[in-house]
UniProtKB/TrEMBL annotation:
Swiss-Prot/TrEMBL keywords: Disulfide bond, FAD, Flavoprotein, NAD, Nucleotide-binding, Oxidoreductase, Redox-active center
GO MF, one annotated term: dihydrolipoyl dehydrogenase (NADH) activity
All residue ranges annotated as the Pyridine nucleotide-disulphide oxidoreductase dimerisation domain in the record: 385-494
Catalytic residue list: 483
Source organism, top-level taxon: Eukaryota
Disulfide bonds: 80-85
EC number: 1.8.1.4
Top-rank EC class of the record's enzyme: oxidoreductase
Cofactor comment text: Binds 1 FAD per subunit.
Additional remark text: The active site is a redox-active disulfide bond.
Cofactor or coenzyme needed: FAD
Protein name: Dihydrolipoyl dehydrogenase
Any one GO BP annotation for this protein: 2-oxoglutarate metabolic process
């Protein structure tokens, strides 16, 4: 196969020398051209095998680039798949089923005996899901002929990466283009040492061997609320400590109030404008020294979860030596139109550059970056990236909050529809929440959509699509939605935005 490809490449070289019209050749010949130009070294090397990295590598290979993906973890999928999005959703689902068995089954007419937790079995189901998906990604790299190198990559120049292999030794990988996709890591807090035993990050919170009696969570963001939800459902007494004065600052204020009330009904407690300054570990438990409104206070806990955000992971990459510019937050500075750094040949995507630290955003970055390398029109609309919080009910949003629209001075209108008036939500006894749509008052262009309710993370994409194509609330309202479905709540909210809802 290699010999055949090189032979074709040589043939292409002769053809290319006799004509300048190579762009009209078939994709196969173009791929041969790239193979010839790259020689034995390659076209693209991606440092990082997370959602941004492995997607970029696969797409690059699909576009005909000779591609290498370097990953130091030893398993693909990055934080998201190994110790983030995927395992947390497995535990969120399992804990929700347990909670329903305790509190809802009887109302459905389902009688069960004594309900208890088998935490090792719950963890095994989570681990099996992670393992299967990780192996699946490895299979995708192989299928697309991406060279997978297990080790820690370090940039030596704009065309060369050295790798400390996990199995020992080093390897040099050369390519015309280097894409940095190393993701992010847990943000450390002064005075708190994470040991992943009593004081844990989200990684440790996914591996607890027993349900803690008292759990304190630092940070009322997405990770903090999701992990709080898991362990509160399983029986832990959970208190969330937040330095700011609200949960999830980017949420629409009106919807946030309903969201917080729902979490409080699930027995989660909140302390705002509070900081954990010091942690004492006596062996049997923790004593937290906190500061709230200038006053010192203490609290006991069995487990402390630090979920105060994440920081770009760029250590040991050789960025300083290579002269790659970074901002004050440690993010790599790139041209927002093409992901180029200030060093020719080096690009960056995902959590290491400005923008939301989301797996799906990183994937879009990866695809757009390599499409641009291939001469295509790669692009990411950052104004239309959805966010989802997988508590129950879920929260999902895209676009602007009402506060942001009001601040802009743009005339607007709002339409809302409660799930309590939705037939499907009522039939499955899961009717808490609301859909809220914000649109331009003059043009009816949708500016933002916020869904707090069952399956919000699935329903938000209808809004993403309509907003991507510059649609209006009337556009959604006039599309026939299946009945009875939860998605009808989106249609009704759209009707309420441009005119009036029917069922409320």
């Amino acid at each position: 196969m290699v010999a055949a490809m090189r032979g074709a490449a040589a043939c292409f070289r002769r053809l290319a020398e006799s004509t300048e019209r190579w762009r009209s050749f078939t994709p196969e010949l173009i791929m041969c051209r790239r193979w010839y130009a790259a020689g034995a070294d390659g076209d693209v090397v991606v440092i990082g095998g997370g959602p941004g990295g492995y997607v970029a590598a696969i797409k690059a290979a699909q576009l005909g680039f000779k591609t290498t993906c370097i990953e130091s973890r030893g398993s693909l999928g990055g934080t998201c798949l190994n110790v983030g999005c995927i395992p947390s959703k497995a535990l969120l689902n399992s804990s929700h089923m347990y909670h329903d068995a305790l509190h809802k089954f009887a109302g459905y007419g389902v009688k069960v005996g004594s309900v208890s937790i088998d935490l090792p079995a719950m963890m095994k189901q989570k681990d099996n899901a992670v393992m299967g998906l990780t192996k699946g990604i490895e299979g995708l790299l192989k299928k697309n002929k991406v060279t997978y190198v297990k080790g820690k990559g370090k940039i030596k120049s704009g065309s060369e990466v050295t790798v400390e292999l996990l199995e020992g030794g080093t390897q040099t990988v050369k390519a015309k283009h280097i894409i940095i996709a190393t993701g992010s890591e847990v943000r450390a807090l002064p005075g708190i040492t994470i040991d992943e035993d009593k004081v844990v990050s989200s990684t440790g919170a996914l591996k607890l061997k027993e349900v803690p009696k008292k759990m304190v969570v630092v940070g009322a963001g997405v990770i903090g609320l999701e992990m709080s939800s898991v362990w509160a459902r399983l029986g832990a007494d959970v208190t969330v400590v937040e330095f700011g004065d609200v949960i999830v600052p980017y949420m629409d204020g009106e919807v946030r109030k309903s969201f917080q009330k729902s979490l409080e009904k699930q027995k989660m407690k909140f302390m705002f404008k509070t900081a954990v300054k010091k942690v004492e570990n006596s062996g049997g438990g923790l004593k937290l020294h906190m500061e709230s409104a200038g006053a010192a206070t203490t609290m006991d806990a069995n487990i402390l979860l630090v979920a105060a955000g994440r920081s770009p992971y760029t250590k040991g990459l050789g960025l300083e030596e290579a002269g790659v510019k970074m901002d004050q937050m440690g993010r790599i500075e790139v041209d927002p139109h093409n992901f180029k750094t200030n060093v020719p040949g080096i690009y960056a995507i995902g959590d290491v550059i400005p923008g939301p630290m989301l797996a799906h955003k990183a994937e879009e970055d990866g695809v757009a970056c390599v499409e641009l390398l291939a001469g295509k029109a790669g692009h990411v609309n950052y104004a239309n990236v959805p966010g989802v919080i997988y508590t129950h009910p879920e929260y999902a949003n895209v676009g602007l909050t009402e506060e942001a629209v009001k601040k802009s001075g743009k005339p607007y209108k709002v339409g809302k529809f409660p799930f309590m008036a939705n037939s499907r939500a009522r039939t499955v006894d899961d009717a808490e929440g609301i859909v809220k749509i914000i649109a331009d008052k003059e043009t009816d262009l949708i500016l933002g959509v916020h869904i707090f309710g069952p399956s919000a993370g699935e329903m938000i994409h209808e809004a993403c699509i309509i907003m991507e194509y510059g649609g209006s609330s009337e556009d959604i309202a006039r599309v026939c939605h299946g009945h009875p479905t939860l998605s009808e709540a989106v249609k009704e909210a759209a009707m309420a935005t441009y005119d009036k809802a029917i069922h409320f």
